[in-house]
Amino acid sequence: MKPLFRVFAALLMIICLPLQAGVIIGGTRVVFAGNNKETSLNVSNPEQERPYLIQSWVEGENGEKAPFLVTPPLFRLDPGQENVLRIVLTRSGLPQDRETLYWLNIKSVPQLEKSNSEANMLHLTVKTRLKLFYRPAALAKGAEEAWRQLTFTVRGNTLSAQNPTPYYVNLKQISADGKPVQASLAALTLAPFARHDYPLPAGAAGQISWSVITDYGSSTPVQKQTLSRH
């Protein structure tokens, strides 16, 4: 039964792919500049027949309420149409000496057709989560070079990454002597003024290299540093 189940799961994933690709979001992350009252993000539906119901909201790192309002919070996105999500800051008092991370959630629900031909079709609700960084006005300049300031040290079999900047740094990859450093997606996001520890690949002792994801979703050039031990 297990091989049959794997085949069914693979077919199910193939069926679901077009649905997941139905709604296109115009970005991989959002940077909210502190000197603005709002920012925006485009959402489009390239399909020719299927409309979607779009629901959007912002929450904190642990799911708590965030000081942002998304408008419209709920709307119908017809085939071939595009709409703009406006993200509005609803209160002041956020930290001004560093960035703060929130999550923008965009849920897309395909319209269900009431016809016999689609009676047994699978319809999926897809929720996309994008990082939303609140960047204080005083930190408007400097984010582009923050990744170059990362430092790495070795303590025993542990590789420590130190972020001395007030910006979030999103690592794309880390390797030690050409060997990939294993880390979860969450662990690749370095908070401002924070340190994160990773298991050091066996036998790695000479050089660390890394690259990060920029505000625009692209990758920086690879940066290298000779490992130092403590």
TrEMBL record:
It is found in: Periplasm. Signal peptide: none annotated. SUPFAM superfamilies: PapD-like, Periplasmic chaperone C-domain. Keywords: Chaperone, Fimbrium biogenesis, Immunoglobulin domain, Periplasm, Signal. GO terms for cellular component: outer membrane-bounded periplasmic space. Residues 22-139 form the Pili assembly chaperone N-terminal domain. This is Molecular chaperone. It comes from Chimaeribacter californicus.
